Model the fold of this input.
Amino acid sequence: MSQQNIPILGLPVKATAIVAARRFVTVAGAQAGAGANALGVSRASGVVGDMLTVDTLGTSIVEAGAAFAVGAALQSDAEGKAITKDAGATLARALQAAAQAGDFVEVLNIPN
Done:
């Protein structure tokens, strides 16, 4: 999948847990849980105490937790990956389809 993105605002966040690259991250510095609110998407991975850049506005590349269609509203799964919104917070809109879990796709971040 495409690795292009247009980040408008990246904020520094201190990791309070292990964070994988391209996952939804909370304001507290941890990967977002299932359906949780998120500050944005991590650009890189890190461990406790690392400073991470989290894209909060614009577009990001995020790892898919399952297949979804272009235009789908997305939420976080238990590992901070993007999945089709069910009952959680809407974190992004899919700008590309994910054919399967593990795909990296461009999404439009939605503040929440």
Observations:
- The longest strand covers residues 51-63.
- The chain has one domain: 7-109.
- The beta strands are 7-14, 24-25, 40-42, 51-63, 73-76, 82-84, 92-94, 104-109.
- The mean pLDDT is 96.
